[in-house]
Amino acid sequence: MVNDGPMQTPSPTPKANPNRRKFIKQAGTLGAGAALASQSSLWLPRVQSQETKRLGYALVGLGGLSTHQIAPGLQKTQHSYLAGIVSGTPSKIKAWQAKYQIPEKNCYNYDTFDQIADNPDIDVVYIVLPNGMHAEYTIRAAKAGKHVLCEKPMANTASDCMAMIEACRDAGKELAIGYRCQFEPHHQTCMQLARDKTFGNLKVIDAGFGFKIGDPNQWRLKADLAGGGALMDVGIYALQACRYLAGEEPIEISAQETKTDPVKFAEVDESIVWTMKFTSGVLAYCSTTYAFSGINRFHAHCDKGWFSLNPAYSYGGIKGQTSKGEAIEHPEIDQFAQEMDDFSQSLLQGKRSRVSGEEGWKDLKVIEAIYASIRSGEAIKL
Ligand code: NAD
After folding, report:
1. β pairing state of 147-150 and 107-108
2. Long-range contacts of 98-103 (CB under 8 A, 24+ apart)
3. Residue 53 is a catalytic residue
4. 62 in ligand 1 pocket by Cβ < 6 Å?
5. How much distance in Å is there from the Cα of 381 to the middle of ligand 1?
6. 327 lines ligand 1 (CB under 6 A)
7. Pairing of strands 380-381, 271-278
8. Nearest CA-CA partner of 337 in 73, 94, 119
9. pLDDT in tens, 316-372
10. How far is ligand 1, taken at its centre, from the CA of residue 149, in Å?
């Protein structure tokens, strides 16, 4: 695997330099707006809102992510609150109502979901269902006149992504994707380091994310519900990171897959390594797996040094370093609270989200090219 191979970057031992450390801290907080504003359509400047209105969110699917991350995140938001829930399990609805004081009129099941159109308490529908259900529920939410925040990966196919974008556009509603890392300050600092060329021109990115998956019967291993395996689930974080560090789109993809457990991974991918060539010549080599834990990083090699995050994509505990021996340090934030408040602020200010549906569609186009390269054994031009 890539992380054991000859291209692995040795772990540096940082020497603390208080002055430099201070700069790196500020880069992610004070400078992020300037860095983001300097980019094209991918980024929009963040304007501090005086608006105190909170938007009501309805969570669709009360599984692990909703229970352990999103609902707790909604207790920390300033512009968003948990207004409603949608679940097929009546006992879950009762438990959530009691825990979060959600009125009966704001609770739905999958059959009554479309009646959400008549509920003024719900501004945003947050889709937290298995990937293969994202398109249907996004389109239904848009037709019900609601803005949509949809978890990653946006959908099983790029054409489903486009149908979601068009449904929201036709309904005059906004669509954003749950790319939480884009709101995480270590990641924002790294975006700025790349934009500012602090370590020179970006040349090569090494990025990967994987973990050892358990229960062989879960939906993540079923093609219709998951759309794919490790790549769709967690490899997408490495793909996203490469795109937002490079600040441009890949033009050529090559990929290889291996299955060491063809029974467990009969329907979806187990481990994939892929390379991407970007417009300016930046190269990325990436990996993803469901076979083992331990890859959770990116390393950006520039012509005058490097910067990296490892672990990079966790909910917390992100650590960054640079070739100058500095640590990239920021206080811990709740990425979900940040992501939802950013969407609410975008809506309140009448702006596009920086993690719009088009971002999700672009990732699915690359993912489809990765699968096409695996099938054909050839490089795919985009
Ligand atoms: P989960 O299995 O814990 O929850 C899925 C929910 O969907 C459950 O409540 C389940 O009852 C419901 N559901 C409805 N119809 C279903 C069906 N036909 N099959 C299976 N479940 C069905 O999954 P999760 O970990 O909460 O993931 C949900 C979504 O969130 C996925 O798209 C996943 O990729 C995404 N996710 C994102 C992050 C992140 O960090 N942004 C982390 C985890 C999951």
Report:
1. unpaired
2. 100/71
3. no
4. yes
5. 32
6. no
7. unpaired
8. 73
9. 999 999 999 999 999 999 999 999 999 999 999 999 999 999 999 999 999 999 999
10. 14
